[in-house]
Write a structure and sequence with these properties.
204 residues, mainly alpha, Rna Polymerase Sigma Factor, Chain: A, Arc Repressor Mutant, subunit A, 64% helix, elongated
Length: 204
Amino acid sequence: MQPSAAVSCPTLEAESRVSASDDQVDVERVLAGDISAFEGIVRRWQEPLINLAYRFCRDRGRAEEMAQEAFLRAYRGLGQWRKDAVFSTWLFALATNLYRSELRRIPARTVSLEDIAEPSNARASDGGLEDHDRDLAVRRAVCALPAKYREALILFYFHDMDVTTAARSLGLPEGTVKARLFRGREILRSKLPQLVAVPRLKEA
């Protein structure tokens, strides 16, 4: 069963505050030869990585496969983590790069922005859209954007990364990420002005 796009998942920021020390301990144990310690890393980050992959491909089965590959690459490359950032930031950067490469190899089925419409029967008392339906429509619209804008918005909004972390994950300068966030918002507003004229798309 596919996860609901309107249900929030643990964000990178929230999770990393709790688990940074646990991650470091487990990484050090793995590097010291205790392979079983990697199970702790998988347990903490499996669902966030699957959810991130799902935002990219919109296919639960494929998302699970991509997340599994991300963990495999992380395990093989643990020695490359230089500890200049928290482990989760390094892990998400690795996963993001993998997901982007995988989708360039085999693109996901895309939806046109022209096919995204404002929900017709979800009006709140103030004339706006109900939060659930509005959030779902916004997420669908973001997924219909060109890849370079979609990737930036997914990390910034759906996974609560700040610009610095999103830029590191995408391997781009912060200025480029800010420009893509701005342009992505503008495209959404031009296509779906009533849908995105809400605080959901905060400024970076």
